[in-house]
Amino acid sequence: MRPFVGSNALGCKALLAFVLLSGCNTDTAIKDEQPDPVLVEYPVVYIQRDLIAQSDNDDPQGASFQSRNPAQFNPGAQLFVKRNAFTDSPVTNITAELFADLLGEDAAPETVQRIDIRDLSVSDDGQQFLVSIRAPEIEGVDEMEQPSWNIWRYQLANQTLERIITSDTTAAQGDDLMASFLPDGRIVFASTRQRLSRAIMLDEGKPQYTALDESRDNETFNIHLMNPDGTGIEQLSFNLSHDFYPLVLQNGQILYSRWDNMGGNKGINLYQMNPDGTDNQLMFGWHSHQVDFDEQSELIEFIKPQQLPNGDILVLLSSQDDMSYQKRPVVINIEEFTDNQQATVQSGASDNAINDLEMSFEFNFNFSDLLSPSGRLTHLSPLPDNSQRYLLSWDLCRVVIEEQIRACGQLTDEQLLDQTLELADPLYELWLLNDADGTQQLVADSEAGKVITEALVMQPSSQPKTFIADKVIGNELDPQLHEELAAAIHIRSVYDFDGQDSTANLGGIAQLSDPSLTPASELPARFLKVVRGVPMPSDEVRDIANTDFGRSRNQLMREIIGYTPIQPDGSVKIKVPANIPVAISVLDINGQRIGGRHSQWISLKAGETLQCTGCHTANSQLPHGRYAAQADSINSGAIGGSAFPNASQNIIPIQGQTMAQADAMVNGIPELTSSLNYQDRWTNPDISAVNDNINIAYENLQTPAPNGSECFNNWNTYCRIQINYVEHIQPIWDLQRLAIDEVTLEILADNTCTSCHNIVDDNNLAQVPAGQLELLATPSIDEVAHLTSYRELFFNDVEQEEIDGIIVDKLVVVLDADGNIVYQVDAEGELILDAEGNPIPVMTTVNVPAIMSTNGARASANFFDTMNNETHQNMLTAEELKLLSEWIDIGAQYYNTPFYSQD
User: Fold this and answer.
1) Helix, strand or coil for residue 728?
2) Are 881 and 617 in contact (CB under 8 A)?
3) Distance of alpha carbon 856 from alpha carbon 590, whole angstroms
């Protein structure tokens, strides 16, 4: 006999018979239990934990669950297995002696090991479940030597709980969490192992280390796969921030949560991929992190998705308070929507994708700390059948009245509105709710100071998951790309923005793709740049100062993977390295980025080809990145059987092919280059003039080329371009640039950048730097970790002037809004007078804005326009301007490697 609480209306709807029980200073509404007959034979599993994770009496700390720190250790959890759903059925703590061998010889027999437990997941046949467990903390050692999270398996047949990875060495190589069974018995899980990423680092010439997330707070989780016996561990995803909470859907695909944290984006969204890691794509949530509930806007993340038996996606939304347990169950329609208010192009659905889980009970679970007749929910999971039953960890609504605990169901509506009501301490118990018949029963009680956080029933699923075989090399995967450890990206047109032709004012892609109508010099988009994010090491590996990132740490560190031309119709097909996070940028003829930076990391498996329709603006909520949800491409491709209109007869496309596809069919998929290299393959010389070639290459620099550029002489998937300010940019300013008379060899002018942009002239006398811009390779007085030139380029400064051979900050009189002089006054507001009795004007410095911006080369137009004016034209070469542009476009970092020489 246990209490049932709720509003009067809820009690009537449930048709429950209530009696009043008095005792233990409590008046409680209760109901006779009617156990579900189906659950009599199925065990119930649940995790119960202490509300206080650290038991230091001087500073007790509550258990905290941070979505971006999944490996956080909250000691004080226990794992229980009940024979069935009867409240008084036998229950066993199966973790009570799990780490008994770690206890000292002098430990008391009743000592309870303070471990942490999470992530229950049951197999489709109901015969085994997976769980993540972390062993007790080891006193006196640092965090790096503490136990790791491991995945354990409980088998019902022999009632054993065993760690899946048996080798202690292998088990300690990373934190493993959130495991689920695939239909063939393999296990998908989230891990910080980063096994393939670490191996690629060695091939790139970097040290091997476990990377931190892009906020540089915690080791990054990625999705991994292993055999049922813990062997054959394989990394499936390669995001630079967390990929976690993998859910195996009924269709066999994997839905998971991804923290999109590139360049300041902070949202955790839902992604989907195949079990072999292919077809990885955004599914839902990019523009849906601010949602209105109960007339109040809530900031939400899409964490730990579940699938209901009917196929809908269930998410328990969490409060932004890490110490709060309460959840709000919502159902998300990801089949017809890509965002809360954005339907897929094909579905045309209306209303919202995110809605409260509908139940026959009038529940109102929310994040408020105020009294709610529905009580509070911290866990809800559906039973794996079609019975509309749920397991809930439920804190029933109870209040304290005159030192007695009363159930809210005993109070009138008027009493419930009393603002002075005091909520009783939380008591989360495990309940079985049958939404089909409106009944519920207690499954497991709890006690003060504890909470049941997860539960499941070891019951066979009525919707066993579909098996999806790995893609086959030579069939779905390109064998040559696979052998090269490469993949391919094909974009039908970079001029396609959400199904609209962005070049309509130029005649559209039909005109641009016709060489007789549009010469290459008039094409808006000329090159595609591929960029790789540099994994961030922990402080133990390399302590990175914030100054290493330069003006802004928003882009962290970046390496350029290479360049390729964009075809006249806007299409691109290019080889890229497999199994690393890459981003793309569209460039103009000068190699400068058009539009914003790409905001999602792309990673592909070896042999895979990504098919993209086009591009997307950051503010657009139209579907993008989810292939089947987007508008059709504006580029329908070739008619087939003949050359493109007025184009070369050397390339005859197949029907529907883009120019990039046709070119790759004839000439092979292009490899990335370090240079901006263009050769006209499309002009028919019998119809129109052939376009000039372009080759802006590092080989033509008179200063050191970026690190790694020599790799592109014989390209492979580990080629990277690394630009560091001191090594590669400062030498441009220092390079001697003398204008010499070819006949007399007389020096006509010294165009060296640091000759004019200096605080002294040729005679070593003080001068104001030209343009108020000092480009010297001396330590900055504002930040000694930076050269003066870097600070002058990217930070606002004040105007200077030369007075009596000394450079000083220029001061000007301050004027008010009406143009009147502002004078100095004392504390009483009286004018301060000089020795002659005159008021003293307030003086101020004159701001000089930075000439470059980390937002990109086009945002640094003041600099590049200056380099094209009458004074500076041709002083810098095309190669130097390209180097500056590409460096600024990736973020103008001071260093783009954590492992620069510290000499």
Assistant:
1) helix
2) no
3) 13
User: CA nearest 409: which of 711, 686, 61, 27?
Assistant: 27
With residue 574 as reference, give the H or E element that holds it: strand 572-577
48-103 pLDDT, tens per residue?
999 887 655 556 677 778 889 999 999 999 999 999 998 889 999 999 989 887 76
Reported pTM? 0.92
In whole angstroms, how far apart are CA 872 and each of 234, 479, 703, 725, 756? 54, 51, 19, 22, 12
Q: In the chain, helix, strand, coil percent, each to 5?
A: 15, 30, 55
How far apart are the C-alpha atoms of 248 and 253, rounded to whole Å? 6
**Torsion angle, CA of 727/730/731/736, rounded to 10 degrees?**
-170
The answer to whether residues 388 and 434 touch, using CB atoms and an 8 Å cutoff, is: yes
Higher pLDDT, 264 or 108: 264
pLDDT recorded at residue 35: 55
Q: Which two tokens stand for residue 131?
A: 């769980």
Token pair in block for residue 508: 């559209």
Strand 128-134 with 149-155, pairing: antiparallel
Structure tokens of 28? 């409680």
Confirm if 559 and 722 have CB atoms less than 8 A apart. Answer: yes
Which parts of 135-231 are beta strand (E)? Answer: 149-155, 160-163, 176-181, 187-191, 222-226
CA distance 263 to 256: 21
State the burial class of residue 157 (Cβ atoms within 10 Å of its Cβ: 0-12, 13-18, 19+): exposed
Q: Which residue has the tokens 């010294």?
A: 750
CA 702 to chain centre: 39
Q: Strand 254-259 to strand 243-248: parallel, antiparallel, or no bridges (unpaired)?
A: antiparallel
- Nearest Cα to 325, choosing from 366, 278, 354? 366
The string of DSSP letters for 227-274 reads -TTS-S-EE----SS-EEEEEE-TTS-EEEEEE--GGG---EEEEEE-
d(CA 44, CA 87): 11
Burial class (CB in 10 A: 0-12, 13-18, 19+), 265: middle
Cα 534 to chain centroid, rounded? 14
Average of pLDDT values for 749-775?
Answer: 94
How many other β-carbons are positioned within 10 Å of the β-carbon of residue 350? 8
First CA to last CA distance, the chain: 75
Give the pLDDT confidence of 695-733 residue by residue, as tens digits. Answer: 999 999 999 999 999 999 999 999 999 999 999 999 999
**What is the DSSP code string of 120-149?**
EEE-TTSSEEEEEEEPPPPTTS-GGGSPPE
Rg (CA), the chain: 33
Longest Cα pair distance anywhere in the chain, in angstroms? 114
DSSP states of 363-409: ----S-SS--TT-EEEEEEE-SSSS-EEEEEEE--EEEETTEEEEGG
The DSSP symbol for 4 reads -
Specify burial of residue 647 (Cβ count, 10 A radius: 0-12, 13-18, 19+).
buried
| Span 526-559, pLDDT tens digits | 999 999 999 999 999 999 999 999 999 999 999 9
Q: 3-class secondary structure for 861-885?
A: HHHHHHCCCCCCCCCCCHHHHHHHH
The number of CA neighbours under 13 Å toward the Cβ of 192 is 22
Q: Is 99 exposed, middle or buried (0-12, 13-18, 19+ CB in 10 A)?
A: middle
